[in-house]
Amino acid sequence: MPKSNIEKQLEKLQKENKRQQADDKKQAIKAEIRERASSIVNGQPIIKGLRIMDETSEILLQALLKIYKEKDSCHINFSYDVLPECVQSYIGLEFEKLTQYGMTNSAMLWMGGGIVDLLPPALSYFERKEKINIEETSSDIKKDCEMVFISHRSADKILQTHLQIF
Fold it and tell me: How many domains does the chain have?
C-alpha cells in the first residue's frame, strides 16, 4: 500500500531531525575539543615571546617536521602509522593544539590519515626554543655569580672596583 503524503512528510522530518542531531553532536564534540585544547595551550608559559608547547604537541610537531624534510613541502599528507602512538588516540585534540599554537592551519583528518599545512613558525620552533633555553641558562649563571659588596672604607671601594672588572 502506498504511503500517504503525511507519512512521507513525517519520515522526511524524522530523517532531518536525525541528521540535525548528528550535526549538533559533531559540533558539540568539536567545541569540546577546541575548549580542551585552548585550556592546555593557554596554560603553557610564554618565555621571551615564545609560547612553549606541551610535550605531546612537540612530539607531533617533530613527526610532521620529519615528513616535511622528506617531502620539502609545507603541505603534508600523512597516515597515522607514521605518527607516534601517544598522539594517535587523541589526534583531533593534538592537531587542534598545534593550530592554536600557530604551528599549522586546521588539519583535515579522516580514517587512517590526513592533510595539514605547516606554517613558518613551525619550521623554526625548536631553534627558537633552543635559543631561549641557552639565553635562560646564561642569565641563570650570571644571576648565580652576582656579588654583594657593602663597605664604606675607602680601601674597600678600591677593591670593589677591581672586583667589578671580573
Answer: 2
